[in-house]
Design goal:
alpha/beta, seven-stranded mixed sheet, elongated
Length: 307
Amino acid sequence: MAQARVIVFGYGELVLAALDTLTRLGVTPVAVVIPGNRVGQDVDIASAYARARGLTLLVQPPRTRAASFLAAVQALEPDLLFVWSYTMLLPPDLIALAPRGAVNLHGGLLPEYRGGHVMNWAIANGETETGATLAYLDQGIDTGPVIAERRFAIEWRDDAATVRVKLKAAGEELLTAWWPAIEAGTAPRVAQDQSRARYHRMRTAEDGRIDWSQQNVAIYNLVRALVAPWPGAFSLLGSTRLVFRRVEPIAASSSAPPGTVVRVDDADLRIAAAGGDVQVLSVEVNGHCVSCGELRRLGLAEGMRLS
């Protein structure tokens, strides 16, 4: 069988991992597609990768302006579409252009973690396990039949950065193991159990606001789900945004209302929450780490409540 003509959709380091893995498998994609609804370094590095290797580079526009894009894809005569780390839906008329279908390498376990930013949601939800899933795309959002999954643990000290490293490795392993069957059209198509399905929406910046009435472990999970380069978990000190980069839940519990600063000195910052206090190990203001002394100069004091 002749090598499949593959178009790869994605951006950032994960699509680079997909392209490198396919190259090791002897596959040269006929094009790379980046999402038109996203800008920044993650898109730029995918564009640079494609141009450096002489690959056709396309930008997927909104559906209202999709006619010329669909024509460009059709002219490339793809057999397969492959997606890893992407922010736009592939409409049915796009998927239909590839006789062997469209395959997505999803950054979570299906069907429990459908939707966007599911790696971050899993950490914030306190899951102890996640994984990567290969699945065919259909007209729904992560509802297509599953080819295979690769699970791994979310350890207590993991955060979004370390979990993404594990996710990248799991994805590369899945793609390497299953690509021959995908290319041949013989990969499994296991229907998802709809009774277990949960959809997770794309996270917004406001989802990072800390609710200090939650258990201190839940706050710890939220903070580690949003470490840099993600925007971070935050509270407000008046009009000043405090972005918490590292915290620790501690058993000691004060009687102060949730969100109250129960200690702030040169070596320690503790804030009241349910189930115990939260010890703050790293906090940023305007993108820069600040010390407890600097926070005091900004007006932070024991007895104050963060919002």
